[in-house]
């Protein structure tokens, strides 16, 4: 992991040059990998009126394509992330399996821990930044680092990508 100051400068440069949503998401993905670490990085947007979640960005288009949407389920994950705007963290594949039906694929990709960072704009949760790594990777220190370093950049990216909606 690089110095957060240098990684944030690189993010700032990349975001200021971004002319497409993908370039903006790429900048956030690079910042995440450089500071917190991730084997898999995705962004899911939430359309609460339609009760649909859509993968807006992925760094693994083969296993997690951006096409399509899935229904938003009201469960403990939803209450924590959407309702209370708190990060969801799981550090074992068994814990992930309690809320994500694709846990088998997650495990096959070498991931066993996750942070779902809610992105709030205008008082509403508009997306989650989903960061996955090997089991037990997201220690309390790394979770705090993810929240401290990634929240504002993720808000900037979401504001940029939602500007035309």
What is the molecular shape? globular
Overall number of strands:
6
Q: How many domain units? A: 1
* Poorly predicted sequence stretches spanning 5 or more consecutive residues: none
- How many angstroms separate the termini? 35 Å
CATH superfamily: GAF domain
* Share of residues in helices: 40-55%
Average pLDDT, to the nearest integer? 93
Characterize the main sheet.
6 strands, antiparallel
- N-to-C series of helices and strands: HHEEEHEHHEEH
The number of helical runs is: 6
Query: What structural class do helix, strand and pairing data support?
Result: alpha+beta
Order of strands in the sheet with most strands: 3-2-1-6-5-4
Radius of gyration: 15 Å
How much β-strand is present in the residues? Answer: 15-25%
- Label the CATH architecture: 2-Layer Sandwich
> Which CATH class applies here?
Alpha Beta
CATH-defined topology: Beta-Lactamase
Description:
This protein is α+β, with helices and mostly antiparallel strands. It has one domain: Beta-Lactamase (2-Layer Sandwich). It is 42% helix and 24% strand. It is built from 6 helices and 6 strands, in the order ααβββαβααββα. It has a 6-stranded antiparallel β-sheet with strand order 3-2-1-6-5-4. Strand 1 and strand 2 (52-58) form a beta hairpin. Helix 1 runs antiparallel to helix 2 (21-35) and helix 2 (21-35) runs antiparallel to helix 6 (140-161). The longest helix is centred in the last third of the chain and has 22 residues, at 140-161. The mean pLDDT is 93.
């Amino acid at each position: 992991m690089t110095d957060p100051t240098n990684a944030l400068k690189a993010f700032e440069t990349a975001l200021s040059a971004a002319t497409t949503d993908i370039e903006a998401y790429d900048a956030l993905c690079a910042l995440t990998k450089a500071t917190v670490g991730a084997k898999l990085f995705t962004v899911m947007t939430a359309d609460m009126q339609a009760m649909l979640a859509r993968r807006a960005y992925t760094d693994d288009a083969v296993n997690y394509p951006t096409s399509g949407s899935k229904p938003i389920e009201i469960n403990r994950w939803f209450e924590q992330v959407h309702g209370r705007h708190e990060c969801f963290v799981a550090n074992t594949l068994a814990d992930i399996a309690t809320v994500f039906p694709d846990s088998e694929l997650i495990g096959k990709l070498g991931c066993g821990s996750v942070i779902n960072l809610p992105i709030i704009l205008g008082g509403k949760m508009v997306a989650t930044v989903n960061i996955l790594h090997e089991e037990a990777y997201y220690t309390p220190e790394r979770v705090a680092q993810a929240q401290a370093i990634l929240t504002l950049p993720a808000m900037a990216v979401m504001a940029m990508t939602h500007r035309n909606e």
